[in-house]
Amino acid sequence: MLRKISALLLSLVILLCGTALAEVTPNGEFPVVDTPTEITIWTSIPGTQTDYTNNATTKYYEEKTGVHVNWIEVADAEKATLFNTSLASASYPDYYMTGVNSTDLISYYEDGVIIPLNDLIDQYSVYLKQLLDENPSVREAITAPDGNIYSFPMVNYIPAGNVNAKIYVYKEWLQKYAEDTGKAKPNTAEGLEEMLLYFRDHDMNGNGDPSDEIALTGHYQYNNTGIPVFYMLNGFCYVPNDYFFVGDDGRVCSNVKTDEFREGLRYANKLFNEGLIDEGIFVQSLTTFRSLTTTTKDKVTVAACAAPYPFRVLTMQTGVDNAVEWKDYEVLEPMQRADGTTVVAGISTVYVTTFGMITTACKNPEVVMRWVDSIYSPEMREYLIYGGEEGKGWEWKDGVKSIAGADRAVVSLLDVTERNAIWLPDWVGSWVTEEMYCNNAAESDSAEAPLRVADGKLYDKYLKETGIPRINWCTDQDTTVEFGELNTLFVDYLNTAISEFTLGTRDINDDNVWQEYLNTLDAMGYDHYCDVATSYYFQ
């Protein structure tokens, strides 16, 4: 009865106070306010979650902080459009909980939309301030040329997403290939071709139809991360999934005009002509691709596919007997080059992005600062990464091998549905997936995160970073506009060229056709684009 009365009194206080100002408690304490208060947050909804209003983490965090959030929720697919609509309306929330382009932040400040965070961080932050003090490179990355910090940092340890060009193989079929041929898991151009030919010719699913298996497939979405040709290209020369990188001279460049790049395309075209690459990789969506891989083990058709990490390979099926899971596909090592070296293109395993802004409409910005700062706390990072409270969402278990090799690991107590009721840490903005947390996960865990980490560590051994900064502060509007236009122009042209050379629409073996491709790049202003890109990133 006493709890019910207390709950009613709390509801009455919130109702009477509305958006009345509240005093924050001493830094680092919970709750973060001395009386219940409300803030308004604009955000988009991750595809795996229904909403924030009724989310388990939302309720837990409100109890911890004493802050009730009035959510303005939009579908992620409409985020960009509705964000611009919100900005144009001048009816701002207290906090925009969304990723934002660093070059736009200064404009938002000059237009009176957002406020600088420097003083708020110094006065009301504990965990964020500690992060910035211990990591000067993070502070430097999020600080604008005028010396102000306008957005919170999201700092991710990503030992898988840093390299996108990976190929995953259905493990049972890979084992059968090894047993029947005596050959190891391939890591060369010749070995990959031999394995795919085996899958093509051996009715792998045993249904009597030797033609319904797909040797290698993927999809076009998400910046070429689902196109297997990029895995192959890196076996011939250095090719990021968006083509460009910083050369030894500090200038932005690429290998798309080299003989090695052509050899990589020639190899891809050969595999396509042999029926080993699915034509759909350049036209099918992620949803269509996953409809091929998301199946039961008696109906598998996809032998191998391109994906940056296991989550992209398939959609987990709750309550489906004999369902194919992430762990049923095994990643290949990067492709070794003819000279015996192995190099893959990617970004740093730790990267920084700008995420979240406090607006000029916020009457109590110190409350928002305390609310966000607490997400950076060890307690909340643990809650978000592991999935809830210890003993309810996860537990330590002795005798279970961790990713780091220890005999003690964190084991999830949640099924997929329950895990989706926890905020996705990379959607709220925080120091998300530190190596410590990843290494504590169980090596045998069927969850995606441990697999992602293990696969990433395999590729980290061969990683050469592109040198392209994650955050840049180009203040020259003309350069920014020109870079955006040229970058779209060249990436679109190169995407089309890779597709056509692979599928044989353009003959990669015809010297005249290749020269026409090179001439087109020059006519488009390839060298000028590299100069503009260099200025854009490093002015």
Structural description of this entry:
- By secondary structure, this protein is of the alpha/beta class.
- The protein has 21 helices and 14 strands.
- It has helices spanning 2-17, 56-65, 79-89, 102-110, 118-124, 127-134, 136-142, 171-181, 189-201, 229-233, 259-273, 286-293, 365-375, 378-386, 416-419, 425-428, 435-440, 448-460, 477-503, 511-523, 526-538, and strands at 37-45, 67-75, 95-99, 152-157, 167-170, 245-246, 252-253, 304-306, 329-331, 344-346, 350-358, 394-398, 408-412, 463-465.
- The protein has a five-stranded mixed beta sheet with strand order 2-1-3-11-4, sandwiched between helices. A three-stranded antiparallel beta sheet has the order 8-5-9. Strands 6-7 form a two-stranded antiparallel sheet.
- Helix 11 (259-273) crosses helix 19 and helix 19 (477-503) crosses helix 21 (526-538).
- It is globular.
- 41% of the residues are buried.
- The model is unreliable at 1-20 (pLDDT under 50).
How is the secondary structure organized here?
Elements: H1 2-17, E1 37-45, H2 56-65, E2 67-75, H3 79-89, E3 95-99, H4 102-110, H5 118-124, H6 127-134, H7 136-142, E4 152-157, E5 167-170, H8 171-181, H9 189-201, H10 229-233, E6 245-246, E7 252-253, H11 259-273, H12 286-293, E8 304-306, E9 329-331, E10 344-346, E11 350-358, H13 365-375, H14 378-386, E12 394-398, E13 408-412, H15 416-419, H16 425-428, H17 435-440, H18 448-460, E14 463-465, H19 477-503, H20 511-523, H21 526-538
Parallel strand pairs: 1-2, 1-3, 10-14
Antiparallel strand pairs: 3-11, 4-11, 5-8, 5-9, 6-7, 12-13
